[in-house]
From TrEMBL:
Residues 7-127 form the Gfo/Idh/MocA-like oxidoreductase N-terminal domain. It holds the Pfam family GFO_IDH_MocA. This is Gfo/Idh/MocA family oxidoreductase. It comes from Blautia faecis. It comes from the Bacteria. Belongs to the Gfo/Idh/MocA family. Transmembrane segments: none annotated. InterPro entries: Gfo/Idh/MocA-like_OxRdtase_C, Gfo/Idh/MocA-like_OxRdtase_N, Gfo/Idh/MocA_Oxidoreductases, NAD(P)-bd_dom_sf. Residues 140-406 form the Gfo/Idh/MocA-like oxidoreductase C-terminal domain.
């Protein structure tokens, strides 16, 4: 396989520290040759790590994509509402594209991105990294083997974690649906995609319920200030007190969102008036903190999905119920239990699950994407499938808002 080259658009946490890490770990296979990032400090730091010359560092994707084609592919890791334009520009310019999820919060843009990839015969791979996890890969394998007969029912839960909800969806970049995208799309399009994959069928219809119930002004303790460092009287009994929340995790990835300089002095300074220092009850967040979705697939498989912020762990648990048996799985524990209805036997599978990067899925996805580009083969996250799972998420949000059952085909074709 020839060495694959890439440009990076958006050098934040995912683009700057996760997916691009593959180039540093596998320099003979993959190289980043140019970057577009509006934040000067991040841009310069990224360029230094990847030995990118100054003339190939740009403030905007428009500048970078305005140049002649510089590489084989483009990694687009901007904010949710900034994926569409650079993706279309990159496809037209001749780049294969790896696009961070979600593709877009706009139905028409999602559909067009899939159509443009087909029109220009380019790879458009969406970062549905869970398909690459040892856990979900094994579940797919067991279903294809007929281990539990015909699949009939899926019960799936995403435990967001109280701390992750506070960081990303109350204080952070994905707190406001109008600025980014609805929770069910931004956080849970992974899960829509996984259920679609496991059901092995297109979605027919969905219903959904959910609310923003807890992280609101009316639940603020008496006397709680707008910022934690403004003398909050509840600091000792609050799980979300920002200085403790971040200073006790200086080696973790969350603190990198607060400041690129992660020593205590810079973190405290950033928390004084920065977004991550706000009281979780005094933010401009609008996304839900719990939601359920019921799904009917065209092959008569039914599924129920639950997303909740009110858990200790950030985890995914699933049950697959078939005509001959049942599977229970815990992704983060790496355990799968298979119960056979005829014999009554219980089989337990213990998987190796790396602690970082969605249990190792991030690097597995990058490995696959590089080979898709370098060898011209298909991968697990083709744009056509990703369009379907994104539309499922948007239809679920429509169902939540309207209180109606939404037919997916009708939803996809409406105002197309």
């Amino acid at each position: 396989m020839k060495k694959v080259t890439s440009i990076v658009i958006g050098a934040g946490l995912r683009g700057g520290h996760v997916y691009s890490q593959y180039a540093l770990d596998h320099p003979d296979e993959f190289q980043v040759v140019a970057v577009a990032e509006p934040d000067k400090e991040r841009r310069e730091s990224f360029a230094k790590r990847h030995n990118i010359p100054e003339e190939l560092c740009f403030e905007s994707y428009e500048e970078l994509l305005g140049k002649e084609k510089l590489a084989d592919c483009a990694m687009i890791c901007t904010m949710d509402r900034m994926h569409y334009e650079p993706t279309i520009m990159a496809l037209k310019k001749g780049y294969h594209v790896l696009c961070e999820k979600p593709m877009s919060p706009d139905k028409k843009e999602i559909i067009e991105m899939g159509e443009m990839a087909k029109k220009y015969d380019r790879i458009l791979s969406v970062c549905h990294v869970l398909r690459y996890s040892p856990f979900f890969s094994k579940l797919k394998e067991l279903l294809e083997e007929g281990k539990i007969g015909r699949l009939m029912t899926i019960q799936h839960m995403e435990e967001v974690g109280y701390w992750h909800q506070a960081h990303s969806f109350v204080r952070g970049n994905w707190r406001n649906a109008e600025e980014s995208s609805p929770m069910i799309l931004q956080k849970c399009c992974h899960d829509m995609d996984i259920m679609l994959w496991l059901a092995d069928s297109k979605c027919e219809s969905l219903s959904s319920f959910g609310e923003l119930s807890y992280f609101t002004e009316e639940n603020a303790p008496e006397g709680a200030p707008a910022y934690c460092l403004d003398g909050c009287p509840h600091r000792d009994e609050c799980a979300f007190y920002a200085p403790r929340f971040y200073l006790e995790n200086l080696d973790g990835y969350l603190v990198r969102a607060v400041t690129d300089q992660t020593d205590p002095e810079h973190v405290l300074e950033a928390l004084k008036k920065g977004p991550y220092g706000r009281c979780v009850f005094h933010c401009d967040n609008t996304v839900v903190d719990h939601q359920s979705v019921d799904i009917k697939f065209e092959n008569q498989v039914t599924a129920s999905f639950l997303m909740t912020a009110f858990t200790d762990q950030c985890a995914r648990r699933i049950r697959l119920m078939g005509t001959k048996g049942e599977i229970k799985g815990d992704m983060d524990a790496g355990t799968i239990e298979i119960r056979d209805f005829v014999s009554g036997n219980l089989e337990t599978i213990e998987l190796h699950t790396p602690a970082n990067g969605h249990n190792g899925s991030d690097m597995s996805m990058m490995h696959d994407f590089v080979r898709m580009v370098g060898e011209g083969r298909k991968g697990k996250t083709d744009a056509a499938v990703s369009v379907e799972s994104h539309l499922m998420a948007l239809a679920a949000e429509e169902a939540r808002i309207t209180g109606q059952v939404v037919n997916l085909r009708g939803f996809a074709n409406e105002n197309k």
